[in-house]
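Colleagues,

Please find the record for the two-part complex below.
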Amino acid sequence: MNAAWPLWEVFVRARRGLSHTHVGSVHAADGETALQAARDLFTRRQEGVSLWVVPSADIVASDPSAEAELFEPAADKAYRFPTSYELPADVDHM
Amino acid sequence: MSQAEFDALIDADERIEPDDWMPDDYRKTLVRQIAQHAHSEIIGMQPEGEWITRAPSLHRKAILTAKVQDEAGHGMYLYGAAESLGVDRAELLDRLHNKTQKYSSIFNYATPEWADVGAIGWLVDGAAIANQVPLCRCSYGPYGRAMVRICKEESFHQRQGFQIMLTLSEGTPEQKAMAQRALDRWWWPSIMMFGPPDTDSPNTARSMAWGIKRYTNDELRQQFVDATVPQAELLGLAIPDPDLVWNEERGHYDFGEPDWDEFATMVRGEGEIPDLRISTRRNAHAEGEWVREAAVAYAEKQQQRERVA
């Protein structure tokens, strides 16, 4: 019998007020045991207050070879950033 | 991505991520190195694990249990990093069990006395930290991230080991003698943990060009000796190297040549202890088989129930 456990991605909320952040992965038969493994592996030293586990196979990722077409157009749109607007010296706190 | 884009990322000291294109040799080198590193972590549980039931106090037992649990965790972080390169964890374990992949030969030494637990934490984990801190900046993202987590936990390991050595050194003459014997046993193996001398390390240049390695074996070895000698002096223990002397001109300690023939023997992994390490590991894996199967069967049954409901 093939007893291979699927892979789960683990996300930890470091403390209240922060979002869950990816920390690594675990193998487990189901979500419940994946949570237990994630707890033992990633939060032995008060690293978090909440855990998510997500089947790795369910993650839809952008294609790394499309990095340029997806993310580079922002580079020539400096006007989207506040730093591209010069203000008179008298104006502060804007 | 192409070779040119890969080279540009490496030249810019950027990180390579799992789905990026990478040269076959880069991938193979990383799989071999990360797998060997992972194997070392989980085999490394054994020499110290032997002392959990014999630790001299409940406090030391709790510390040692936490440390050995950390080593298991480090193995899991690293197997996870290796898997991101497209290999299967079960296959890596098979290769450890059938001896086609290695683990660090430092774990082929015996731990006959309690002070060995102290010396391992102080020296072996100290040498591991010297090796691992630069790996946090490894060009392969998942490996570097795993190393950041590991280094954070290792520093507790080194301190608890040093504290055992300090307690013994300040104890009875018998206790201090035991600490000295442990230093005598572990000094040279720790020096050899950095691998063969640069003149005999054919892959170093390539690994450095790829940003996998940041310093050569000899550079790290020197750094370790320079950091450790004053600590031994503080303990009042003698490092078993007659050639060890401060070199004012270089600003470093000069030290003797390790027994590289012994190193080669240990790396080959022949003998009673290596056999014990692998058979213990194989047995643990085989005895856990029914648990892995039962968990899968339970998960399948739950899924079927959900579908019916």
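The CA atoms of residues 60 and 70 of chain A lie 15 Å apart.

Comments are welcome before we finalize the supplementary table.
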